Amino acid sequence: MSTDAGTSAVPQATRREWLGLAVLGLPTLLIAMDLTVLHLALPTLTADLRPGNTELLWIVDVYGFLIAGFLLPMGAIGDRIGRRKLLLIGGAAFGVASVLSAFATSPTMLIAARALLGIAGATLMPSTLSLIRVMFQDPKQQGAAIGAWTGFFGLGTVIGPLVGGTFLELFWWGAVFLIGVPVMALLLVLGPILLPEYRDRSVARPDLLSAVMSVLAMLALIYGLKRIAQDGLQLESGLSLVLGVLLAALFLYRQTRLDQPLVDLKLFRNSLFGTALGMLVLATLLSAGLQFLVMQYLQLVKGLSPIQAGLWSLPITLGVMIGAMGGPGLAGKMKLSTLLSGGLVVSALGMVLLTFVSGPSDLYLAVGGTAVIGMGLGPMISLGTGLIVGAAPPERAGAASAMASTGTELGSALGVALIGSIGFAVYRSRLSDRLPEGLSAGDAHAAKDTLGAAVDTARGLPAELADRLLAVARDAFVHGLRTTAIVGAVLAVLLAVVAATLLRGATMPGPPPAAEADGDTDGDTDGGTGSEAAGDGAKSLERVDN
């Protein structure tokens, strides 16, 4: 970095830092793409591996659960061992896990590989933001760099369906995972050349036991709920729920006993903080869960090819982007509570549109309704982090921001798990007593697992029997989609009431004073809280030159 005397000795980024920013955009782009490409691959994946409905949901959402669980400790680990070092380790692990996912030969193997992807992914997001905040110390340059980083994420969201659809059209389902291999290879080559190393030796050791406890609690609870959705309340599902509740209680108790807890429960003393965080989680839950089901509708009900489904998903993505980008502009023109509650009402209207979807002929209604949902939830998703950080004391801004990032990841994973479980439960229940006569016991069992399995089963049946099976299976799936849309609409209206009442008087935080912004090089507004735990992290920050 160079120093310009006219900017009060604030280091100015050089060409190397800007080239480094482009390198940091690579994993950001990939993570955004990974949020959508797998949804397109599910029909062909299901036909090949034949996962049950519970396994299918784990394939999708174990990635998000583990990112959410390890995001906080990975930020602190990066501060201790070096942020670039952690980024490169995570990039290598992500590449290996991508190959394992691509060539998985069973649902269990794919779930395990996706779990490794989630842990590796948890190293990437905090590392990229941490490095940006120390590479670009001038407030204007830092703002431009973070804006570019956000642009990479938005670009990945837009091109994900197109790239994924193209790969699926030309290759097999595993190819969508191999997209990440050359990206991570490029990161490993260019990272040591263009990215500086930063570490903070004063950061307390992250409490990995808390991270493991939180992840196990989430997985046990979600496993129990999924088993109930599939088979009803039984001993196995009941014990899983009890275990999840017990682990969650022990996790919360442990946080009260630690000097540097993984989750600072004191932040929840401010009701605005808890309200905003809860609403952010639920907003992302609704958005991710309903998009997951609609993407299945495009290919398995409407019968679109992967590339066609990718193209038809663009309006959905653009709806989210319009809402997210328009939210900050509208926040300066109306009350925040009015903006957020109004957006939630708009999203509820989009969900009402989904309740009118009755079959393959309602493509425009399904896509349009989901786009409206994304547009309505966009302001909450984009403004939620700022609202959460603004509700926290200034010295705890890093912890609040990290919890907001974790909440977003958790909401996305919960959306697929819970909304998907409701949809599949309705599908299974409605299909059980409507299966056409003439099916073997094996074919009937397969068809009841997932719609993808029903479509694959129909390919080996006589034409008339196949048509009858597809008709009742698609009708059962659409019925599940409509049911989840009704549940989502009710939840969105309730959230709108909460926003209008509990967020009354809330405002977005203003920019920090220039002096404070200039000195904030500890990176604790990323996914980790380690630098913050050290007190004055900026003074103890160590740059390691190449």
Describe it for me?
It is a single chain. The protein is mainly alpha-helical and 546 residues long. It has 2 domains: 10-195, Up-down Bundle (Growth Hormone, Chain: A), CATH 1.20.1250.20; 263-516 and 528-537, Growth Hormone, Chain: A (Up-down Bundle), CATH 1.20.1250. Helices cover 77% and strands 2% of the residues. The strands form 2 sheets. A two-stranded antiparallel sheet has the order 1-2. Strands 3-4 form a two-stranded antiparallel ribbon. The longest helix is centred in the last third of the chain and has 40 residues, at 463-502. The radius of gyration is 23 Å and the shape is globular. Residues 511-540 have low confidence and may be disordered.
List keywords for this structure.
21 helices; Growth Hormone, Chain: A; 2 domains; 546 residues; single chain; two-stranded antiparallel sheet; membrane; transmembrane helix; mainly alpha
Cα Rg: 23 Å
Net shape: globular
Quickly give the structural class.
mainly alpha
Q: How many structural domains? A: 2
Percentage of β-strand residues: under 5%
Order of helices and strands: EEHHHHHHHEHHHHHHHHHHHHHHE
pLDDT below 50 for ≥5 consecutive residues: which ranges? 511-540
Count the beta strands. 4
From the 3D structure, determine the CATH topology of the largest domain. Answer: Growth Hormone, Chain: A
- Classified by CATH, the class of the largest domain is Mainly Alpha
Q: What proportion of the residues is helical, as a percent range?
A: over 70%
Taking strands numbered 1, 2, ... along the chain, how are they ordered across the largest sheet? 1-2
Biggest sheet: strands, sense, closure? Answer: 2 strands, antiparallel
* Mean of all residue-level pLDDT scores: 79
In DSSP terms (H or I, runs of 4 or more residues), the helix count works out at 21
CATH evolutionary superfamily of the largest domain: MFS general substrate transporter like domains
* CATH architecture level-2 label of the largest domain: Up-down Bundle
Rounded to the nearest angstrom, the distance between the terminal CA atoms is: 13 Å
